Give the backbone structure.
Amino acid sequence: MRNSILMPTTTKLILAAALLPLFLNVSAFGAEVKMQYRMPALMMVTWAEWPEQPEQQDVMAQFILSQGFNSVEVEADKLEMCRRNGLYARLGDGDINNLLKTAAGLKDDKSVFAYFISDRRRRNSFPGFTQVARAFEKVDPNHPTMFINRANWNEFHDFTEQVKPKLLDFYHYHWDGRRHPERRYIYLATFRELGIKNGIPVMRCVGGNVSVAQLRQTFYTSLAYGIQGFHFWPPWMFSINKEGDKPVLKDGKIVPRVNVPPLAEVAREIKPLGPVLIKLRSTAVYHTKPVHPEAPGAASFPQDHWLQLSGEQMLAGFFKGEDDGDYLMVVNCDAGKERETTLSMKAPVNLLERMDKKTGKWQAVAINSRDGRVVFKLKLSAGNGELFRVKREGEQ
């Protein structure tokens, strides 16, 4: 990461407090907004160096899948490779007209994830983006266009209102001190609200060149806020081992290389959560106090909420499943040390289960009663999170 330019804590808090009403733009939602587009999976989008031979491309594709990623940034010439290997294609092209022509034949192609259009453009580009989005929707109504919003420009409300995208994408590298890290939860809350209000999923571009604990904090807090897709900067995640300019071959196959091992480690870790998370609907996010001395803007637990957490810098993201069941993700927001919390739930609770991140299976958790509430102690390593399913009285 580049060297940070630090701002006094008091200045950060004043700025964040002043900006909070603008960012949150919270309104009471009535009936649930119908989703305009649903992600096909929890999207983990990456870049790779591709060999020329199709059989060697398959080697790279399978390696990418084994590392927890399921989508690649490619042009149309790699689409058949994606189909063969079960990868989603985030399609781009240096000529947007060529991309539009390509899209006209792909509306029923399940290997297409999205069409990448632009990154970091200001408000004066939004009218043109609106035309582009409608043109792509006309020829392919089933796959979204992608425009990456720079969160720190604070133009995402206008973007969403004007462009009316089917997918909302933003970047905020909150481990870089120059990128307003104090706004981390304000941005997560704001994009979550925009997604719910407009019936569209949200994805996020994050900085990948930080520690495992920082990556865990980034992923799990984002997932708790309902983020359903990620891509990364720098994007150059997978390369080919070479001697000189020639690929190294082992048993006739290329030898792929992970350029950012900590990112692959966390991607593999969260992969089993994807099939469950992608079907859930975010309903609320609450933090314990203090949240973080330099990250205001997070909502505290209501006193009468059915679940409470103990301890500092803990977060719970609440979800409803297709069965109307209760799900929650509990996160240690502290990337610096392990923390412990007690989940205290209003009785009766019929069952508490935790997702096993190694197997992707639900496992029952032993719970206790105290002062008329159901309690469970949880210890989380730095930045880590756990997904739970709760069956309360009256639920099947």
Notes: The longest helix spans residues 9-24. Residues 9-27+38-277 form a domain with the TIM Barrel fold (CATH 3.20.20.80). The chain is about 25% helix and 30% strand. The chain has two domains: 9-27+38-277, 281-392.
